[in-house]
Design brief:
It is a single chain. 47% of the residues lie in helices and 0% in strands. It has helices at residues 11-21, 31-36, 75-86, 122-134, 149-180, 189-222, 242-253.
């Protein structure tokens, strides 16, 4: 069967052949009528043509970034990336991020590296560098025309180191004065770390002793005679694992 189905037109012919061969004993009531008035060609249901829509090629290209929001970039972001890339541990320090309206940094006098009511941190270095580059014309501080981002970063970074060093000296002197007057401080982070390390070493030592004992018992069981009342253990084993001997020596020396 091809594209068109012509079997309905051959119904009368096929029925006549079946009657002549004796396959059908009773003549169908429509046989004579269809033979006298055959069906027209238009009554045969044919398969309709399938129309395929071809995509139209338009020369107008749709802008891909028309409805995307514009990327917001601030100059401070580049300075923060540079500073915290050189000082990653500054991000581990606790900071107070609570502000009234988000413009507290604009009300500070960044002509000085540190502020009385603000702890010095990486953001202080960024704001100090911005002040060295652009100044503050509203307060009468004009920018230096010879100042470059590299020079501003070096100057702000050195001032940051000096303030941190001064704070460390003040804390050290205050602790020594408190100890001299009878104050008692808890364990330092170094002492706590050493205690944890010693505890882990003692646990490993106990585990290593058990492992050495089990290995010795396994070697002794290998030479136990079958059916004998007493096990015969050799005095020395010439084929002892050198790593096991080293482990035994380390446990005994500790």
């Amino acid at each position: 069967m091809g594209r068109y189905d012509f079997r309905p037109l051959r119904v009368h012919q096929h029925a006549s052949q079946l009657l002549a061969a004796g396959r059908i004993r009773i003549t169908p009531p429509w046989h004579e009528v269809v033979g006298t008035v055959p069906p027209a060609q238009t009554l045969v249901r044919s398969q309709p043509l399938q129309h395929q829509e071809r995509p139209r090629r338009s020369k107008i290209k749709k802008p891909s970034k028309l409805f995307q929001p514009q990327r917001i970039v601030y100059e401070e972001d580049t300075l923060r990336k540079e500073f915290f890339g050189d000082h990653p541990w500054e991000l581990a320090r606790p900071r107070v991020v609570l502000e009234n309206d988000g413009k507290d940094a604009e009300r500070k006098d960044w002509s000085l590296p540190s502020q009385p009511d603000r702890p010095i941190d990486g953001e202080s270095v960024v704001q100090r560098q911005m002040f060295l580059l652009h100044g503050n014309p509203e307060a009468g501080h004009m920018p230096d025309p010879d100042m470059t981002p590299a020079k501003a970063y070096d100057q702000a970074r050195k001032e940051f180191y000096e303030v941190r060093l001064q704070q460390d000296i003040e804390r050290r002197v205050a602790k020594e004065e408190a100890l001299a007057t009878g104050a008692y401080f808890g364990k330092s982070t170094l002492q706590i770390g050493m205690e944890l390390e010693d505890k882990a070493y003692e646990e490993w030592k106990a585990w290593a002793s058990n492992e050495v004992m089990e290995q010795q018992q396994k070697r002794a069981a290998m030479y136990t005679g079958i059916g004998s009342d007493a096990a015969s253990v050799p005095e020395a084993d010439p084929q002892v694992d050198p790593e096991l001997e080293e482990l035994e020596a380390a446990v005994k020396s500790s």
